[in-house]
Specification:
The protein is of the alpha/beta class. It folds into 2 domains: about 220 residues, Rossmann fold, CATH 3.40.50; about 150 residues, Response regulator (Rossmann fold, 3-Layer(aba) Sandwich). The protein has a 7-stranded mixed β-sheet, with helices on both faces. It has a 3-stranded parallel β-sheet with strand order 4-1-5, with helices on both faces. It has a 3-stranded antiparallel β-sheet with strand order 13-14-15. Helix 1 runs parallel beside helix 3. The longest helix has 19 residues. It is globular. The N terminus is likely disordered.
């Protein structure tokens, strides 16, 4: 899969602009900048997601804050300085980078890395050094089960997303489903939630199979599932697998009533790569520009800044996390314990609605199902959040 990402020069230039934007700000900050550190994948397999969902939002937010005169810290304006590291999609580099940022560099605040696994690895450091971490790309009850008071998960948890999918299938009268899932924390937790949800809705699971991260060929597995003729096919996949599964399913003519792939389906590059082939494919999603005036304004600003669209799932959660951080700093300042308490005990206005946390979980944003339709990833479930009616059965592959 080829996913367009920001060049290293563009990233460094944007970070510098975010740090020194007071040149175009209405007024200069009187105090030292608020130094915000993070490690993110600019290279390696994680970069496909990180450079769509997270770092562009980090940079754009810092630029906007600085253009407004800086971050309001209990009534005083201070510029934002981003201190960023390429984690190279390597877990050891992630851990070393955050240990340095929080330990020796002593940045004021941190932003999270990309993905469930990397967040899982950093969580103990965030608790050790006392840094609140608002994560837009980590999901799993195992993470929340660590009872880390400094960790806040913005994405809907696996059981909530899979409950929504099972509810959608039950409402359409589906009787059977087949599932494949990546053998990593994300896939394992999503599958556990889905299996329980399907059982509750009396939908028979005719096949369940895991596959290793980095898999290059799933056609034999897909052929076997095709022979079982399930009503629904669900792949709890990462971006490279999402593209692989879609291409190989089309190649063998596997076109069940519901075709669902996970991470990466909401990326605009998925639509751009597959064109009409994407029509009717479902996946993880929360929003699109039609969801509200706030999401439309965010979408337009992102396109104007980066000349590319944000994804229709976690990008908005990433922006919501930055909005929460900004609102909490305005109240509590950069005292990290007070900041943590403010985040844990307040309700925040964000582009995806009001958000409140309970034991680190976003309990306000419902599980959802989205589907590519005529170039937009429409929210099709739950009904109260839908931006369009679902295609079911899925149209034939183009």
């Amino acid at each position: 899969m080829s996913v367009p990402s920001l060049s290293r020069r563009a990233i460094l230039g944007a970070i510098a602009a975010a740090a020194f934007a007071p040149a175009i700000a209405p007024a200069f900050a009187q105090d030292a900048p608020v130094r915000i550190g993070y490690a993110i994948a600019r290279t390696g397999p994680w970069s496909a997601g990180a450079q769509v969902t997270q770092e562009p939002n980090y940079i754009m937010w810092a630029e906007q804050v600085n253009a407004r005169g800086g971050l309001s810290v209990k009534g005083k304006k201070r510029m934002v300085e981003l201190v960023a590291v390429d984690d190279r999609s390597d877990m050891e580099t992630v851990v070393r980078s955050y240990e340095r940022l929080m330990g020796s560099d002593k940045v004021d605040l941190i932003l999270p890395p990309w993905g469930t696994g990397a967040n899982f690895a950093v969580m103990p450091l965030a608790q050790k050094h006392g840094y609140p971490m608002l994560s837009p790309t980590a999901t799993g009850r195992k993470l929340l089960g660590m009872k880390n008071p400094y960790f806040f998960a913005l994405l809907q948890q696996p059981d909530r997303m899979m409950d929504a999918l099972a509810e959608f299938l039950a409402a359409r009268g589906a009787k059977t489903a087949a599932v494949i899932y990546v053998d990593e924390l994300f896939g394992l937790e999503q599958f556990a939630g889905l299996e329980a949800s399907l059982k509750q809705k009396n939908i028979q699971l005719v096949e369940k199979k895991s596959y290793p991260i980095g898999v290059k060929d799933l056609q034999p597995v897909l052929n076997d599932i095709k022979s079982k003729n399930p009503d629904a096919f669900i792949a709890l996949s990462y971006p490279p697998d999402t593209f692989l599964i879609t291409g190989q399913s089309r190649a063998i003519g596997f076109n069940p009533k519901l075709f669902y792939t996970a991470v990466g389906t909401a990326f605009p590059v998925y639509r751009d790569k597959f064109g009409p082939v994407a029509e009717g494919v479902m996946g993880l999603g929360t929003w699109n520009p039609k969801s509200s005036a706030a999401t439309k304004a965010y979408f337009d600003a992102h396109v104007a800044r980066w000349k590319k669209e944000p994804d229709r799932w976690a990008s908005a959660h990433a922006w919501a996390g930055l909005q929460i951080l900004e609102q909490a700093v305005a109240k509590a300042g950069v005292d990290r314990k007070a900041l943590r308490d403010t985040i844990a005990n307040s309700e925040f206005d964000t582009i995806i609605g009001k958000i409140r946390f309970r034991n680190g979980e976003n309990i306000s944003t419902p599980g959802a199902v989205s589907q590519w339709q005529s170039g937009e990833f429409e929210v099709v479930w739950p009904p109260q959040n839908a931006t369009g009616p679902a295609y079911y059965p899925k149209p034939a592959w183009k």
